[in-house]
Design brief:
Chain lengths: 106, 115, 106
């Protein structure tokens, strides 16, 4: 259970389809994050985003923007996302959700 | 400041079109009104049913579908170019708006970029 | 936008709605795109390979400028079958660009 599928040097899954909820919990644990319902809402959003568009939100700003567009202002703001996914929220959240690394974090 | 970014390079064969996409996304990220215009061979970006997995690339068509979520205002397509490549709007990604490329088109934007 | 004026170059018109700077040869897809969006009140500046359009013919009612050094390099004269073409040097090109409301580099 502490095993995860193959990952790159930054901890992103090589194959987004190898992801599972258990894998998410393991990766989150490495960042000291305990996943709550609020986290899962964003993770599910990213999984569905990837299914639809075959890409990660390319930058942090666009991540925030996409969340805002889908889940509203309360969640689509950088403070909220920063609290859930510290560091660069787009990178942290994509890593946990099993998505590729956002291409250009501006 | 509204910007028109023109994509007139074919998908997959080179990175030029992707660079234009990146530029449009970056403008959108900073809430700058941006519109994409596909013209010439560039309209092939819009064709539905692309499956480039076997050449190890991502479907640009799927990426384009995300454009509205990121705040890219509109996806315009050169009507003549669509016809040249046997496309009509129903065979394109959703939300594509065919336009006639004429002088008044540029007048709607503060800046026009053709990388 | 602040008021700007084109430097008093040799016979240069005052203002153009859009300054189209073209460096592609005749027949190039982008040359077609440039000509398709060229309004009568715009100006077209031919540089590099685009000056060859003076040899093959150009049908526009917009003001046409051509960069002298690029004409000379290709053995072309300004009146190569075209009337009303204004030959400019680099400084005049800069002045035109600085004075334009909008510039498109094709």
């Amino acid at each position: 259970m502490s095993q995860t599928p193959e990952r790159n040097n930054e901890g992103f899954l090589e194959d987004p389809w190898a992801w599972s909820r258990d894998v998410a919990a393991v990766i989150a644990g490495e960042d000291g994050i305990e996943l709550t319902g609020a986290h899962w809402e964003i993770i599910e959003f990213l999984r569905s985003f990837y299914r639809d568009y075959q890409m990660s939100p390319p930058s942090n700003r666009l991540f925030v923007k996409a969340v805002k567009e889908t889940l509203g202002d309360d969640k689509g703001n950088s403070i909220y996302l920063m609290q859930l996914f510290p560091g660069t929220p787009a990178k942290t959240a994509c890593r946990i959700a099993g998505l590729p690394r956002p291409t250009n974090c501006l | 400041m509204s910007v028109l970014v023109i994509v007139d390079r074919s998908p997959y064969g080179s990175w030029s079109g992707r660079e234009s996409m990146d530029m449009a996304l970056s403008l959108a990220a900073f809430d700058q009104p941006v519109t994409l215009l596909f013209s010439g061979v560039g309209v092939n970006w819009l064709r539905a049913g692309q499956d480039p997995a076997s050449i190890f690339q991502k479907a640009v068509e799927r990426n384009l579908a995300a454009a509205p979520i990121f705040g890219i205002g509109a996806l315009l397509a050169d009507q003549q170019s669509l016809e040249d490549f046997g496309l009509d709007a129903s065979q394109c990604v959703t939300g594509v708006m065919p336009v006639t490329v004429e002088p008044t088109l540029l007048a709607r934007f503060d800046d026009v970029v053709c990388l | 936008m602040s008021e700007s004026s084109v430097a008093d170059g040799a016979g240069m018109a005052s203002r153009h709605a859009v300054l189209h700077i073209l460096n592609k040869p005749p027949g190039h897809a982008r040359t077609h795109l440039c000509l398709a969006t060229l309004a009568a009140t715009d100006a077209l500046v031919l540089i590099e390979d685009a000056v060859l359009a003076l040899a093959s013919g150009l049908d526009t009612s917009a003001a046409v400028y051509a960069l002298g050094p690029d004409l000379a390099a290709r053995g072309l004269a300004a009146d190569n079958g075209q009337t009303g073409v204004i030959v400019i040097d680099y400084e005049e090109l800069v002045a035109l660009a600085a004075g334009a409301d909008k510039t498109v580099s094709w």
